[in-house]
Structure formats: C-alpha cells, structure tokens
Specification:
Length: about 240
C-alpha cells in the first residue's frame, strides 16, 4: 500500500542542504533562511519557488529523489490552487513508487498479478474478493488513472487516435471513482488516507493537470519515451 511518506523522509541534513542551495554565497540570505527554518520548519523552504529552481539548475544538488519529486509536485499543485501538503505528499509518493519496475501494474509491492488496463481492475472488483483486496483495487484504480493521465497524457491521446481508446476524461472519471470508493473503506481511515483520497477525488482533474505540467516542463519536454525519461530523471537526482 502506498502511503504519503516522502515528506517524512526529509531530515535535518536535507533541510540544511536546502538552506545552502537557497543562500549559495549570500550570507544574509543564509541567515534569513536559517531563521525561517527554525521558526517555521522545513515546509517554508520546500514551498519557496527559488528552491525548485535551485534543485533543477544547481550542479551541487545532493537532495534525494523523494525531495525533488515532492517539491515538483507540491509547487505544481500550489499553482493550481491545491494547498494540502498531505495531498502533495501522497501524489509524490505514488509517482516515486510507480517508477519502480512493474509497480504501476501491481496492487502492492509484493503482489505478482498485474493489471494493465482499468477494465481489468473493474472486472476484478465485480468478483468475490477479500476486504483488503477490494480496498487495494479501489486505491489502485485511482493511483493508476492518475499516474497514466497525469504523466503520460500524450500516450493516452495517441491511443485515442490510433485505436479509438478511452480519452483522458474516462481516466479522470475512473480515477475519481476509485479514490471515492477507497476513501469509504475502513482501511483508509486506519491508514490516515480517508481525507487524502477524498481530496484527490474531488480535485482529480486539477491534480491531473498539475502532473501534466510536471511532465511537460521537467520530465519529457522534448519528446522521446516518457517512461525511460522519467526513470533517468529519478536516477539523475539520486544521492
């Protein structure tokens, strides 16, 4: 099960590295950033647009991929008017989880059965399942719909043109439905995901557009295979 863990993984060393990136050689900026860090916590730095620019342009970046992706998602969501850090954390955690080989097609890390199409998940929901599997199917329907329509909209549009496949609106509807159903499961409340699922469901289209911007601006702005490019971006921002 994917949980919003990216933000919690940032430690004191990461925070001080952000101060270094923000200040560079300006001691006054350094003092100001340190004061903000001590008074408001690391979130004030993660939300600073100058940090995003530094993470993407400075040659001395040592931030882990989880931090880079969180900042990309968080600031893109802020641009679209979504201010929930928990939602940004969850969306970033989905992206980071799904770049692992095959994980986007499996309900959980240890699962062996793969789901390549939304219709396969929906068909499985109509069969007899355990409460746990039903919850995972609903959450995965939301996650996979968001992942595909958010980061690979051109792939969806190409399939629409070639095969008459479902358009992005279909993925938005299915994704929102998956998150809504998952939010009503007892497991969602126990894991602290109920409000996050409701928020992403309610604003699915907006979150999708925010991820489109991440993809267009930073992951595959010049074409090429988007999956390979995304994996290269993750590797390039590693420690």
């Amino acid at each position: 099960m994917i949980l919003p863990t990216a933000r919690a993984s940032f430690g004191r060393r990461d925070a001080l590295h952000l101060v270094d990136l923000l200040a560079h050689t300006d001691e006054e900026l350094r003092r100001s950033a340190l004061e903000r860090l001590e008074a408001q916590g690391v979130d004030c730095l993660l939300d600073d647009p100058r940090i995003l620019n530094a993470l993407l342009t400075r040659p001395d970046v040592k931030a882990p991929p989880s931090l880079v992706f969180y900042v990309l998602v968080r600031q893109s969501l802020l641009e679209r008017g979504i201010d929930s850090r928990e939602t940004a954390d969850y969306v970033a955690s989905v992206v980071l989880s799904f770049v692992r080989s095959g994980r986007a097609h499996r309900l959980s890390e240890g699962a062996t059965e793969e789901y390549r199409y939304l219709i396969d998940m929906i068909a499985r929901m109509g069969e007899r399942t355990t409460a746990r599997e039903a919850f995972l199917l609903r959450a995965h329907l939301g996650n996979f719909s968001l992942w595909l329509s958010g980061l690979f909209p051109d792939f969806i549009e190409a399939r629409v043109r070639r095969r008459g496949a479902p358009p992005i609106g279909y993925y938005e509807a299915m994704g929102a439905t998956g998150y809504t159903m998952a939010s009503s499961s007892p497991e969602a409340g126990a894991l602290g995901l109920e409000s996050i699922f409701k928020d992403v469901s309610r604003h699915f289209s907006t979150v999708r557009v925010a991820l489109n911007r991440v993809a267009d601006r930073y992951l595959h702005p010049t074409g090429g295979d988007p999956v390979d490019r995304l994996l290269r971006e993750v590797a390039a921002t590693g420690p």
